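Below is a filled-in request sheet from our internal design queue. Each sheet records the structural input a requester submitted and the sequence that came back. We keep these sheets so that new team members can see what a complete request looks like end to end.

REQUESTER: design group, bay 2
PRIORITY: normal
MODE: inverse folding
CHAIN LENGTH: 423
BACKBONE (tokenized):
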């Protein structure tokens, strides 16, 4: 059973009671991420996430770590382009202790200068890890091309130069601007009674007030002409990310996009996986994926390939894009994609972390609860013509592309990809 309470200060609490559960997962979500930053603050959201674990007046950093471990279960945090989340899962009897701990560092973190200096080195190492992981780095390079100067092109971690200059004042300004009640959703799923959960939250969060000056509002990105670029790096493989502008996360076409992605490259029976890996052996890793936000999004394709097979792979990708946007998929193929989507949805329902994430994201992006039956009905209603029309809208405008690896610009036959213009 799903329930929602909005406090007088605007903070939202959502919960889902699952009778058979003996555990509960709690997430504290803030509607802020890399897209809310500018050139001199890029990386603030992620740095703040790290600092919340580094001490309060009543708990040191080591005490926070010990207490999280003693509670058992699991705890973590993450920052994305448009949200920051702190979460944990414990046995139901430990819920008050978990909420007390999360509330303490959420509201009372010290941001001590010595802790900032220590954590700065950790974040810089995290940035270096991405640079040493080409399958992650190529996605950052691609998104910078796709979004251009729009803040969605920001990296989540920030640049080494900006992180090196980050100080206590800048981090606290970020918290004061964005960690406000109207941007916070606290979610719980499992063996949780809604009113009891609200009482626990209210004890700490009801006095949280809105700032005098509101944080800047988000602007939707403008769609740019497709561009492509090669980033030379001495690697064993060429790592490729291609993509086309998609739709907002709340679009009425979201179920069509979900199925289009599955058909194109979302599983082992998808067209790209079968054609590139199974039939031709061109790549070990190839898949498509969806990245959607409140006002925009894209559908991307990634593969890691021997440089000698790069151009053949691009030709196969374009051929599959032409096919899926040129003629309807067969009824059996569409039925299989729907079965795959339904199974994924229902299997995830057995995971409390996924249940907590789902109700929080529904509140953030839709402002309401969306039950499983609504999703299943939305998937069932999608026709082959729906998929065809959406594919044509997405792929006929051309694909932005980034290649990272031991290849030169002149080695890549960009004309194999329809609609690509020079960078």
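RETURNED SEQUENCE:
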């Amino acid at each position: 059973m799903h329930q929602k309470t909005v406090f007088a200060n605007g903070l939202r609490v959502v919960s889902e009671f699952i009778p058979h559960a003996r555990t509960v997962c709690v997430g504290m979500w803030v509607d802020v991420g890399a897209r809310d930053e500018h050139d001199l603050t890029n990386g603030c959201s992620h740095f703040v996430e790290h600092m919340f674990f580094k001490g309060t007046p009543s708990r040191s950093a080591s005490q926070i770590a010990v207490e999280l471990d003693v509670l058992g279960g699991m705890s973590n945090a993450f920052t994305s382009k448009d949200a920051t989340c702190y979460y944990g899962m414990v046995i139901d009897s430990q819920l008050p202790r978990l909420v007390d701990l999360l509330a303490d560092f959420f509201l009372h973190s010290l941001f001590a200068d010595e802790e900032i200096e220590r954590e700065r080195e950790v974040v810089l190492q995290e940035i270096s890890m991405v640079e040493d992981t080409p399958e992650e780095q190529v996605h950052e390079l691609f998104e910078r091309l796709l979004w251009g100067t729009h803040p969605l092109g920001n990296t989540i971690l920030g640049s080494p130069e900006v992180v090196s200059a980050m100080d206590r004042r800048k981090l606290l300004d970020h918290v004061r601007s964005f960690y406000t009640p109207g941007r916070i959703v606290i979610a719980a799923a499992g063996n949780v009674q809604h009113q009891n959960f609200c009482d626990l939250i209210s004890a700490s969060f009801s006095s949280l007030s809105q700032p005098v000056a509101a944080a800047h509002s988000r602007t939707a990105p403008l769609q740019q002409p497709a561009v492509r670029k090669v980033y030379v790096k001495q690697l064993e493989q060429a790592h490729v990310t291609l993509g086309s502008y998609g739709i907002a996360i709340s679009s009425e076409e979201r179920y069509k996009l979900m199925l289009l992605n599955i058909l194109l490259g979302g599983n082992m029976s998808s067209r790209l996986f079968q054609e590139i890996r199974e039939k031709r052996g061109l790549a070990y890793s190839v898949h498509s994926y969806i990245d959607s936000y409140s006002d925009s999004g894209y559908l991307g394709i990634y593969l890691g390939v021997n440089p000698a097979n790069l151009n053949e792979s691009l030709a196969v990708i374009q051929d599959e894009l032409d096919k899926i946007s040129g003629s309807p998929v067969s009824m059996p193929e569409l039925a299989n994609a729907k079965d795959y989507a339904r199974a994924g949805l229902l299997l995830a329902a057995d995971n409390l972390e996924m249940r907590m994430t789902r109700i929080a994201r529904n509140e953030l992006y839709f402002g309401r609860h969306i039950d499983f039956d609504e999703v299943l009905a939305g998937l069932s209603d999608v026709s082959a013509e729906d998929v065809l029309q959406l594919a044509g809208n997405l792929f006929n405008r051309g694909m932005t592309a980034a290649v990272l690896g031991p290849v030169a610009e002149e080695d890549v036959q960009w004309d194999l990809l329809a609609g690509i213009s020079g960078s």
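SHEET NOTES:
- The domain at 228-416 is CATH 3.30.830.10 (Cytochrome Bc1 Complex; Chain A, domain 1).
- The first helix runs from residue 44 to 51.
FILED BY: M.R.
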